[in-house]
């Protein structure tokens, strides 16, 4: 009944074309395609079914295009091979005919059925038909949301104090893009900052001065003096950035189209435990100052690159490089001064052959020591263990130069926080490039850049700026030409339903969920309500987490998921099971199993999804309600989700489902979460077969009226705010470090979750019972119908009455419980 | 194939192994053959990618206007009146050479051994430099990362006989998004074993470690 409703609302009637691919000899002899064509063509919405020798080659594509045109098809299913690889090709071919992403589906019949199962061709055809029917339900329920065109207004703003800003500004100038340079621009001060942030980079300073000069003179770059960053809101193409005013007056508000935050690290003196005293034992910062001022330095000078011992391994090669530059500079200007560089032999020397020759010529020894034996600083010498012969050596020194300490810096962290990133002190801001589409605005690449993000030397900072600005400029040009569109699958917030719990913002790692600027009546200031389409990766964990169910994933809605799961669950035989696999690991491993020619049972039906996090617990409940006897979810390894921890959120949801299944009197293991990796398809096969064996042991669910009633209550309970909220805020596993929330006591949480689920389950059961009976009931009736003791039922019913979920009417001093009065 | 209405683009009539086939503008000989259930073996060809033409396994002999030519069918476009032979003596000869060279290039690959055996090649006269090598440098992984994914995380390093599959600086590449498309297109499973040298450690997400 839901499907018909959805169909009526979806606009033009879906006209589906199904193309079955023979795939050379891969699919055709193994699956009886004639039978499959007959089975698939059975439904009323199917306007065309055809068998093609090779649907992905030009002849096949042209044929599909011809049929789309001829028969006015607006939905296409191609049952062939890999979706991940061929999706783009089909998208381009069908886009010419006006079909958008979301209107077609590729089913991997080859790797999920033909190459891996040993059944008879007719039997495999039946399996194929069920998978096609499920995809059909998905496409029919689609309400096509057109891709948003991204408008771009205003210049690119470069904020933050990092040196990469100059690289970015240079690049943007080259592309002729208007820029705002938001920082106090005093050339002398900026040069001094460069010396402080990147000591010892004598080869590269000139390049930076040139860049600064160009930026100062350019009319394209507007320079503004600002104070601290206060607020950023909006989306790519239309940001509102607020700064404090430097003169303590009103805040300064700017409208920009894109933001590049150039964030520099902070360099500080080395830890005192290494003997730093600022006179004889100094660090590279002070050495740089001495060299610049032309102080006369008598040797011997020893540069000790001690980053590894100081617990900063990433800084090792950077310190070594700057030590080398400083030693070089020193010897060039004071040839009689002795200089040596002492470094841990575990460091990869970042010097080229030319540098070694120069070192020999200038007389600068590069001495490796064994890191396991910590060098000891004495009055006039430093003792170390020489790497090649393990003998203790001494190196004389008059001036000992230690490595500096590097950290992300408070200012950088503060800016990153305002931009929406969860920051930890002392942790650099680099994030795994969460690129799941080539044209995506990636957090680290376009928004934040610089040495606070990815530690680098001066050249690295400048080129980081160039790289980011290059991509930004390309996007800006595209947007200005009206050709920049958001992807087809992104999150959208229904602002009427949203109650601003901000859970979606916590869940989202893409920084896509942004606050609307200004206060929202009744809800406060800085309300996260809009999704930046350019940053959203279309994963959907936010959607499946929202307690109010106020978010939707365009072209990939909950209704579609439920329709697909219903169609498949209803079609399965008693000994068949179903499951989900994400396109990064579960479905990818299934693809790989087919490619490697592995073999396993055909009783498992896999539905691919982009990320497991997209699967609303409601969908899992619906599967069981509509006929699934077992549900297996296969995803990436823990904490390795390619999106925003979707896999890890799924863990909590599966946990909740297990508890609910137990409340229904069913085995907890009927739902299971598994992990897989594309490089180990044999493990995936093993997982699937093991799950099938477990389901065989349990047997199919006995679907009497009582069990079905319980499953309905399970399904309803998963819609409630309370259950969804407690699932959303949980840390997925107590030991996880990559999620900002904190679960102090997992055992206590377990108990709380059980209590909440039990209560909501009961509530759903009562509501369904009252609806079914059509009249008010006494306590005894309810307790008996639900097979629970009266005392417990009484407590729950009392709370339900408080919350307005039942009406309690006393007749002859006996309470009668009924559906609540008034609109429901 | 179904009926073709000759509109602006007339069909190109030619023969493959004596069988009359029709193609349209933009089709290659390989695509036309597959659309007509004629089998031509391929190795570096993948429908998701632009044809590369490096493996030379898909060669066919083309006879036209009294000249013959052995060329890669994945790249060659048909012309009217061509005679294409997929199993002539010259073609079989080229295939034998290619397969023998492949057996020396990647002797550890079972898929290549099976492919060679299907064409009657079981031994090779060439020297085997690395008996454990499985990668045949067909270039599919590089192409898919470039064309389909758009990331360009891996590439060919060194040249000539030393050519191998590498990431820049031979360290796991920050740009790799870990999609595994390269693993999916690899014909031998060589990349499946080596994927961790490309994608590195996903714990980089937390900023705790760096690949320099």
Automatic annotation (TrEMBL), chain B:
Positions of the 2Fe-2S ferredoxin-type domain: 10-90
Statement: the UniProt record of this protein carries the keyword 4Fe-4S: yes
Cross-referenced InterPro entries: 2Fe-2S_ferredoxin-like_sf, 2Fe-2S_ferredoxin-type, 4Fe4S_Fe-S-bd, 4Fe4S_Fe_S_CS, NADH_UbQ_OxRdtase_75kDa_su_CS, PSI_iron-sulfur_center
CDD domains reported in the protein's UniProt record: fer2
Keyword Metal-binding: yes
One GO CC term on file: membrane
PROSITE patterns tied to this protein: 2FE2S_FER_2, 4FE4S_FER_1, 4FE4S_FER_2, COMPLEX1_75K_1
Keywords assigned by UniProt, alphabetized: 4Fe-4S, Iron, Iron-sulfur, Metal-binding, Repeat
Ranges in coiled-coil conformation: none
UniProt GO molecular function: 4 iron, 4 sulfur cluster binding; metal ion binding; NADH dehydrogenase (ubiquinone) activity
Any one of the GO BP annotations: ATP synthesis coupled electron transport
Domain 4Fe-4S ferredoxin-type: 124-157, 166-196
PANTHER family from the UniProt entry: HYDROGENASE SUBUNIT, PHOTOSYSTEM I IRON-SULFUR CENTER-RELATED
Protein name: 2Fe-2S iron-sulfur cluster binding domain-containing protein
Species for this entry: Desulfobacca acetoxidans
